[in-house]
């Protein structure tokens, strides 16, 4: 638990530092071209076609409803690509990145009736991890962004 807390603290601290330097933000958000359910279905389908496995889909609206709280639809989708995961985890230099695994993408509806997709900003990750173009992390980020680009306005 202490390692997870440390990882979260480091990333939020980096984000605050990035804000001061006009660097990329920690999280990014884009509007989807599709409805909430179409976005979740398309993301799942496109991920599977491109070697990504759905580890879990967390339905936060449903979870909160069980506790008497009403919110608009929110799903957190956890993706894993075994090839990228192996490349990251086999090297000691990359193991700190495991705190960000599997890749998490949030799909949600806002009160404006539109659907949005958020995730860790790839520019932030590139800046944080040295922008090594051939690193497994850079390849995974590029692959996820390619999949998402088909859904974004």
Automatic annotation (TrEMBL):
Domain DUF302 residue range list: 58-122
CDD domains (UniProt xref): DUF302
Key words of the record: Signal
InterPro entries reported for this sequence: DUF302, TT1751-like_sf, UCP021774
Claim: Signal is one of the keywords in the record: yes
Organism: Melioribacter roseus (strain DSM 23840 / JCM 17771 / VKM B-2668 / P3M-2)
Protein name: DUF302 domain-containing protein
High-level lineage: Bacteria, Pseudomonadati, Ignavibacteriota, Ignavibacteria, Ignavibacteriales
Superkingdom of origin: Bacteria
């Amino acid at each position: 638990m202490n390692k997870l807390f440390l990882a979260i603290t480091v990333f939020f601290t980096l984000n605050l530092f990035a804000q001061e330097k006009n660097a990329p933000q920690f999280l990014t958000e884009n509007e989807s071209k599709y409805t909430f359910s179409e976005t979740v279905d398309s993301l799942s389908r496109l991920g599977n076609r491109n070697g990504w496995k759905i580890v879990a889909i967390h339905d936060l609206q449903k979870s909160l409803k069980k506790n008497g709280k009403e919110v608009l639809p929110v799903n957190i989708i956890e993706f894993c690509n075994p090839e990228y995961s192996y490349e990251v985890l086999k090297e000691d230099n990359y193991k700190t990145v495991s705190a960000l695994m599997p890749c998490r993408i949030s799909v949600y509806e806002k009160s404006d009736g539109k659907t949005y997709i958020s995730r860790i900003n790839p520019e932030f990750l590139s800046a944080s991890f040295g922008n090594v173009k051939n690193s497994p992390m850079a390849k995974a980020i590029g692959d996820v962004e390619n999949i998402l680009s088909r859904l974004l306005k």
